[in-house]
Amino acid sequence: MIHRDPDDQGPAVPIRPARRRIWTRVLVVVLVVVAMTLRGAAVLWTDFLWFSSVDRSSVWRTILFNRIGLVVVAGILAVAFIAINLFLAERLSPRLTVASIEGARDEMVERFQMMAEAYATRIYVGVALFFGLLMGLGASGLWQDFLLFQNSQSFGVPDPVFANDVGFYVFRLPFWRDLFQFGFQLVVWTTFLTAALHYLNGGIVVQQDVRRISSGVKVHLSVLLAIVALLKAWGYRLDQYDLLFSNRGAVLGATYT
Predict the structure, then answer these.
(1) What is the distance between the alpha carbons of residues 186 and 82, in angstroms, rounded to a whole number?
(2) CA 157, 159, 165 angle in degrees (round to 5)?
(3) Which of 157, 228, 232, 250 is exposed most, by the fewest CB atoms within 10 A?
(4) What pLDDT score does 17 carry?
(5) Sequence ranges of the domains in the chain
(6) Closest CA to 84 of 237, 187, 175, 231
(7) Cα–Cα distance, 177 to 116 (Å, whole number)
(8) For residues 196 and 6, what is the distance between their CA atoms, to the nearest angstrom?
């Protein structure tokens, strides 16, 4: 595309259309997704051939359906949680332009606010879908712990420290750890994304001479940080069971302190 000013007698200057750059980036993303999909399909097909060769196709189907189910459930939960917080951040932010605050000016924030006026919903949904997809795909690897949890059994033997049945440590504890890690990662990522959006919307202003956080932003981020703290406390609660498997000290397992 050539753009020439009618009053300018100089040579024409070629300008690359912004739309072409956008489509180039989209094409790159599509190619990466296709490459990852083909690799996963190859592994899936290889597993199917192996299970079929030993007459265990039902096992392959069980693994496949559980992995798909975990991706769908975890992805939906992640997308919903992230999207709710992003739209809540949009509602709570004062939408102040940085230039309107005396002594504060941030070119990146101003550009985002100009762009987000027309595409805010698409941006938030896209961000939620992207991170939700990552969280969902990560959850697919938890299928074995999920199946153990789903088919948990009691051994009838309690441990001498916490009085839990031994089956708890074999079948249920691994999946509880997976849930903790998933929830903790989700809330931490959401907190970072929400804080960034509050900053871009003007709810958080951090400049050389200006420090400002609106009251709604404080409440929102405080709630998210409180959830992080509660999840961390749950993680410490789960960590205490590691005492039974500790290899520190003279013997394996829990000892005195």
Answers:
(1) 8
(2) 50
(3) 250
(4) 55
(5) 8-55, 56-242
(6) 187
(7) 38
(8) 43
The Cα 181–Cα 240 span in angstroms is: 16
Q: Which long-range contacts (CB under 8 A, 24 or more apart) does 74-80 make?
A: 74/135, 74/136, 74/138, 74/139, 74/182, 75/132, 75/133, 75/135, 75/136, 75/137, 75/139, 76/132, 76/136, 77/186, 78/128, 78/131, 78/132, 78/135, 78/136, 78/186, 79/128, 79/129, 79/131, 79/132
The owner of tokens 């299928």 is: 143
**Total-model pTM:** 0.77
Contact 202, 96 (CB under 8 A): yes
Q: What is the pLDDT of residue 1?
A: 43
- Divide the 257 residues of the chain into consecutive groups of 10 and give the mean pLDDT of each group: 48 53 72 71 83 89 92 95 92 61 55 68 87 90 93 90 89 94 96 88 69 82 95 93 74 59
Give the DSSP letter of residue 198. H
